[in-house]
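Title: Prediction job returns without error message
Component: structure pipeline
Severity: low
Priority: P3
Assignee: unassigned

Description:
Job completed but the reporter wants confirmation the result is attached to the right record. Sequence as submitted:
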Amino acid sequence: MNKKKIDPESSPWAPFGIQLRAFREAKDLLQEELAPLIGCSPSHLSYVELAHRPPSRKLAELSDIALDTGGTMMLMWYQLKNAAILEGFPEYARYETLAEEMRIFEVDLVAGLLQTRGYATAVQMGFVRQGLSSQKLAEERIEFRLARQQVLGRTPPPLVHVVLDETCLRRIIGGRNVMVEQLLHLEQLSSRPNVVIQVAPFSMGENRPFTHMTYLLTMPNRKVLAYGEIESRGYIDRDTKSVATLARSYDRLAVEALGQAESLAFIRAARRDLEWMST
C-alpha cells in the first residue's frame, strides 16, 4: 500500500493528523473501520489525517475513546485551537502526553495537573479582572488545563512527582471554599500509587535549590527534558548537561522537602485551618 507521507510543517493541523494515523495503525485499524467509531466518513478521516481538513472537537474526543489514547488527541486539539496558551507551552504539553515520568516543582500556585476546576477558574478570572486576559481566552485556558489532566489516567499511567512550595498551600485562591476543595483534592491524589506529592516548607529557607517553577520529563527513550518559564514565554531545555544539573537539584529538593507522610499531614492541617476559619 502506498502511504502518503505527511510533512509535519505543512499545516498547523499536520501533527494532529500524524498522531491520529499513528494511533490508528497501532490498533491495526483501517480508516474504514475507525471512521464509524468517531462519527465521520472514511474520506473525511483521510482528509484529517492528511491535514487537508481540521478535526472537530467531537472527532478528537471520540478518537481518544476509540483508540484509548489517554486524552492525547483532545489535548492536541486544544493546543491548536487555543491561541491563548503561553508561547512554548504547547510543545511541552505534547511531550507531557508521552512522558513516563514527570518531576514538577511549583513555587507559587498548585501545579496545573493537580488543579481543581474551581481553582483553575479562580486563577484565570483573576487575570480577566486585571485586564490581562479576556473572558473567552480565560475559558479556553481553563478547558485546556483540565484536558491535560487526562494524562494522569493514561494506561500505563506516568509517575508524577510534585514538590509544592508552602506558598502554594498558604496562598488562598478563589476564597476559602475553593481552597479547601483544592487541598482536599491534593490529599486524594496523594493516595494514587503513581502520584507523589511533597511540600517544601518555608523552614527550608535558602536550602531550597529552585527559585522558580521547574518541570522535568523523562521520555520513553529515557531522555530527560526540562521546561521553565520566563516573562511571557516558556522554553524547553534539551541540553544534556544543563538538564542533568536540574535533575540533581530536583533530587536534592526531594530529599530536603517533607516526606510523603509528613507532606500529607501538612496539607491536611492547612485544609483544616481553612475549614475552621469563620466565613
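Comment from assignee: result matches the submitted record. The first helix runs from residue 14 to 26.
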